[in-house]
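Bench notes, afternoon.
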Amino acid sequence: HISHEEKMARKKRSAPAAATSATATSSAVRRRRNASNAVVAPGGGTNTDVLNLSRNLDMSADAVQAMLHCGGAGVRTSRRSAAAAAAASGTNNASSAVMSTAWSDFMSEEGMGGATAGGSASEPATKRTKQDNDTSSNTTTSQKDSTSTATVFVKHTYELPISPKMRNPKSKNDSSSSYTPPGLLAQTGTLDAAVVGRLAKRPAGRGVHDLEEPTLLFPTTIFTPKIKIALIATSSSSCHSIAVDIHGTPYGWGRNECKQLGTITANASGVPTASSSNSAGSASSGSGILIADIAVPTKLEGPWNISKNVIVGAAVGKSHSILVADNGLAYAAGMNKRGECGVNSSVDEVHHFRKCFLVGGTSGGEGKKADDGAKAVQVSCGENFSVILSSQGHLYSAGSAEFGQLGNGETGEYFVTASKIAFANSTKFERRAIFVQSAADAEGGLVTDSKDSAKMIPLPDSADIAIGSISCGKNHTIAVEAPIKESPGQSASSRVFSWGCGGYGCLGHNVQADEYTPRLISALRGPLFASNTPVRAAAGAQCSMILTKNGHVYYWGKHRQGTEATMRPTLIDALANNMHVVTAFSAGSQTVFCSTKNAVTVSWGQGTHGELGYGLGKAKSSAKPQFVEKLDKCLVSDVACGYGHTLFLIRDEDEEDKNALKKMKKLETDDVAAFMAEVAGRKIAAGAGDDDGDGGGGKKRGKGKK
């Protein structure tokens, strides 16, 4: 038993020792803390900072300290050759070589220069070897070096000039295989354009003009055996169509309420005739009565006839049309409320084809007339905007800017009144020469901050990029870079760009956001496309596709109601996995078509008017690609999907082609005589051009906006 007094005595004897131990412990902690906070590098860097950098850079602490003390004068060399560089410098300090590489790479990426390869730390940053200068002077597609994080630009040489889609009738010696082979014109879907998108006007019964399967249009009465079709044009928002024969003569049919096919009159029998700009301009004329719908293909009149030129390109929007002549001039007619005709006028409608106005060309300079410098060869139209492609691969756009369709980097949104918003639309075609990519794509996907990844950076070769194929959806555009000449031992893949309304992911950037400037689609880059480069584009109302060199089709967006949107380019494996090589493809308001070199055509989507071509009594929709049996063994040279109808260009060259065509239905003018008379008797309604539906495109502003 220990008394209370004994316990107190022991406690007094042990107190000094405990105090001494506590003092020693706190002193050790302070020494360690002071050591970690000691400044050991320029700029106030402590040991803790050095250890953090060592861990993050995967380098030794000695190498980090050496890098910080070198003042940015490291030796620029590849990391693989670090040991060799150390040996060449007569030192065994491998960490010093690694330090030099990391620092020089960092300085190079930040654009701060640095010592040249093999140079000393004391060499000025401006001194460069010839090899460095040669590398930095190349300004085209970026490629990542396997031994460095620096971006190398390889200069591209394009295969120019860009050619029209059809062969110029005047160039009889042109043997190029890039043109679409001519053939016979066929259509599925209704010929009565007045009922499409207007449920109140849809008749209860079915007429001979309602085509439920691909049918040859007037092969003997309008298009004689000597008149084959070389080009077909319609679009996802269009209820009218244009076809151009091998002689360069354009034909138009369908809805014409806004004079999108020019001024057309009809006689008592309903036979339509195009009027020149010097004739009909009122409700009636000497040649007949103005009609709002054209039942059968009718020759179009315009200024090209006066100058003895031929048409080699055509495109149609919702209520306007543009034709391209062989001399590089473009002509437009139809609705012009947003400047979509590009005739440098603010008139609401252009009743006769007028010459389009291009500015910012190669010879005229910015803001000057460029008829001599910009030669139009291709054209594509959206609902209320248009894009022209010149022979040098330059882009020109006109029309609505609401969703960034012009590709000029802005919408120009402003208030007209307190409750009305307008946009900076363009009434003339202006060149668009800025192409961008996201900051994340520029850094190879290494940018993780959401704010930085959303930034757009102009491509280094932006001003030199040439485009080879364009296609407009309802409010967006897809463009494929022009073919690139391959150098020995090196192949290059054409880049794909998109801009405009990004609803349902139709721009291919994995997000529903509008793009106001042509943006690189990063998903269509990489080793997969090195030998299978994209070559052509096709756009539907809210979907997009590209065709590759090997005949594969990539799809993104949405074209069928009740399905999920595809946010990134995705291979249509139902075709690729079955060895189908696609040669023609198109997308409409709610339909998609693909035709192969083995005479197989498939379609899917929704087609209430029979535009899928499955036949009378067959399904009007399909979630997956389904064979169009009526086109079996028919080689389809081209296909164009419209709103309520689909056009085909079917080859007719050899005996096998003719045997395949024999099973197809044919429609002649005698078959539709009653329909022609009924169409001619219709009155042009007020507010013509308005639809009950929107063609599956989604018209409300705000969806997909940034």
